[in-house]
Design goal:
The chain has 188 residues and is α/β, with parallel strands linked by helices. Helices cover 26% and strands 26% of the residues.
């Protein structure tokens, strides 16, 4: 499904997916937040010209019935608030792209530059710090985009502790799914 020569894996932090877990695959670490995600992914795209970007990372869940590794296919910008100009929460004024929908079965993710410990104004299934930025860059450049998030916490007062304790399980779950999608046993 994914070709090493034309795919870049994009992850915020090496702690989320150490390179040794997927040897031979190009992994771009962007750092945390939408600006870092946009800049470093764009830099990687200009350098390698990939056909496909696969994002993996952790996310908080706003639904108690979700756990484990999930595919995300709908992306929103949860901290865009131009409601003072009569725009809905999550809508960028005068931009033609607000919600990105990859038309695959998957959850929705609200991306913002804050670690969520309370219910945000814009409700989605998951919350994270980078996915919308990755999805928008790929949409604008016509690059295939896949996103997998490991639910590390329930976006509540325990989120920080839960996130730290779930990092390793997330990377293991992603590697298992990624290699299964590729029909490849060499990493498992």
């Amino acid at each position: 499904m994914f070709e090493k020569s034309s795919t870049v894996l994009v992850v915020a932090l090496e702690d989320e997916l150490p390179k040794v877990m997927l040897p031979g695959w190009r992994i771009c670490y962007t750092g945390v937040g939408k600006i870092n995600a946009t800049f470093y992914l764009f830099q990687e795209i200009m350098k390698y010209k990939p056909e496909t970007i696969v994002n993996f990372g952790t996310a908080g869940s706003l639904r108690q019935d979700l756990s484990g590794l999930q595919e995300v296919s709908i992306f929103k910008q949860r901290d865009m608030d131009a409601s003072g100009l009569s725009f809905p929460i999550g809508e960028t004024p005068f931009d033609t792209i607000d919600t990105i929908d990859n038309a695959r079965n998957g959850l929705s993710c609200g991306t913002g530059d804050s670690f969520v410990k309370d219910s945000p104004k814009l409700l989605t299934d998951l919350v994270d710090l980078e996915a919308y930025a990755h999805a928008k860059v790929c949409k604008l450049l016509g690059i295939n985009f896949f996103c997998f998030k490991y639910i590390s916490d329930e976006a509540n007062q325990n989120a920080e502790l839960d996130w730290n304790s779930n990092l390793k399980r997330g990377s293991e779950s992603f590697v298992e799914r990624f290699t299964a999608l590729n029909g490849c046993k060499e990493f498992s």
